[in-house]
Amino acid sequence: MKTLIVKCFLLLALVCSCKAADSIWQLCNTNSNISASSQVSKNIDSLLATLVSKTPSQGFVTTTSPSYNKKEKVYGLAQCRGDISKTDCSTCIQDAAKKIREVCPNQSDSRILYDFCFLRYSQENFIGKLDTGAGLIYFNVANVTETDPKTFDNELGALFDKIRSEAVLPKSKGLGKGKTKLTPFVTLNGLVQCTRDLSALDCAQCFATAVGSFMTTCHNKKGCRVLYSSCYVRYEFYPFYFPLDPAKTGPSVGRISSVRLSP
Q1: Which CB contacts under 8 angstroms, 24+ apart, belong to 31-38?
Q2: How many angstroms separate the CA atoms of 196 and 211, rounded?
Q3: The pTM is what?
């Protein structure tokens, strides 16, 4: 896999409420160009309306656009992070549906990811298929100083073994989260989620691929997010999943860089 370093310096702050935010990853496949007036474009709009209306109730939906011509058919998927409310899910999916048509107006293969939801559509049937062909890694450029690298690797590995095992259970719906104490004053927080159309085996494989970056790009870093179309994994030194611990919430400011992954 080829990696392309992207200049990206951000201030990382703990988000304490589910307000609308910018997307953290978007992909417009330039090999899937269509015209704005085409039937495929109209089918995408119809599909997005379905995803917006149906996703909040279950947190996940796959659907296809009605079409008499198979060449104009569009497949869609939307999913919210498993720890957020239906109201926040609805807000995120609405934002995603609007934003994806703005940033990918002439592509029939597009996807967008926010902190709280993911949305994707394509003329190719991707539903139920593992996809780690393209992705993005965000990492805190600061190194871990609270403990030695070997201890950190062991604690990080044990935490993610646990939450990955949790996520592939049917009752978990692809979500695993947890935390572990690095020191009496420092807690490591982790979360994994795969799209719910995947089998348990494919979900586990996606996690394994993503977590592999913890020992390369993100090795010994104070925070990391690995994003793929089929799953994402994340760890931080502050609480970022719900329910938040009011006694431990607070900003964690640092310089963030990113690495884009391409097939």
Answers
A1: 31/109, 32/107, 32/108, 32/109, 32/110, 32/122, 32/123, 33/106, 33/107, 33/108, 34/106, 34/107, 34/108, 35/106, 36/105, 36/106, 38/72
A2: 19
A3: 0.88
Amino acid letter for position 130: L
Strands (E), 46-116: 60-64, 75-80, 110-113
- Average pLDDT score, the chain: 89
CA-closest candidate to residue 161, choices 204, 127, 215: 204
pLDDT digits (tens, 9 = 90+) for 69-113: 889 999 999 999 999 999 999 999 999 999 999 999 999 999 999
Nearest to 72 by CA among 106, 95, 38: 38
Token pair for 44: 């995408």
Does residue 132 carry a pLDDT above 90?
yes
Bigger pLDDT: 173 or 251? 173
Spatial distance between the Cα atoms of 197 and 180, rounded to a whole number of angstroms? 29
CA-CA distance, 258 to 221, in Å (whole number)? 12
* CB-based burial label for 80 (10 Å; 0-12, 13-18, 19+): buried
Contacts of residue 240, defined as CB under 8 A and 6 or more positions apart, other chains included, come to 14, 15, 189, 191, 234
